[in-house]
Structures
1.
Amino acid sequence: MATTRRSPGLVRDAIIDTFKATKKELTVAEVRDAVNERLGENIPSSSVRSYLRLNTPGRFTRTGRGTYRFTGR
């Protein structure tokens, strides 16, 4: 089975757009579901978790276990 390569920043942009659209804190599962809906493909939770973790603090604030808020930076 061939792996489909996504454009650089596609998942990142979908994650940020999701937070901007909701303007509230979200769980990793909520972000993943919204990203999957936006992109029309099955993005692994690990990709979402990794991006959030690597950008906290900075773009995101961890508000609880598996819950994040966009800081807008």
Note: The mean pLDDT is 88.
2.
Amino acid sequence: MVFAALSAAVVLMAGAPATAAAPSGPTASPLTVTPKVPDKVEIQKRRLVCQDEPVLGTLFPKRVCATQEEITERRRVDQAATRQAQALRPYQIDSGKLPGT
């Protein structure tokens, strides 16, 4: 009787599937990730804009491509440099007279 119970237990154990077996490779999480959709302002900042700019000394324009944000920053820096250069002039024209005349 003991032999029958022991053999039945062995048969049941051998036929039972393994539970909590460790996976052999990387597994995917059941979590679903939705990508962030950029809004219109971010798209406008990252959009590439190409324009032809004149070059001194030649009749052929140079094509310059940059993002709208880079063009705005470049324009701001150029305007600041122009204002600074104009403020450092050695003389000011006063009513059409040059200094020393």
Note: The CA atoms of residues 20 and 26 lie 16 Å apart.
3.
Amino acid sequence: MRTNCATGWRRKRAGCRRRRRGWRACSRWAAGVAYRIDSPELAAIRARLADAFHGLLTPQDQAGWRAHVTVQNKVTPAEAKTTLAQVQAGFVARSVAIAGLAAWWYRGGPWEPLSRHMFG
């Protein structure tokens, strides 16, 4: 599966503007920085999984979903702004390969790997 990679934000939409190739750049941040992944195929897989687990998902998992790779999380807005400027300075939208999906389990401490499901 191939998709476009993007840079952006973690929480607030305020100040976001659409850019070429589907990536977003934001002017305000809440808690960190992430690369946005724009992939209709991945979104379709996620939707099928959410349907299969209907009634078992947490409120967070039932909410809207945006594929992303977290660069930085749980920092001050000033730290996020600095990191975003550094990341954007060298960012070039490009295709990335998504090799599979992984399931993780959170039991109050660090996330624990549960299973991996590689695409054929």
Note: Helices lie at 40-52, 59-62, 77-89.
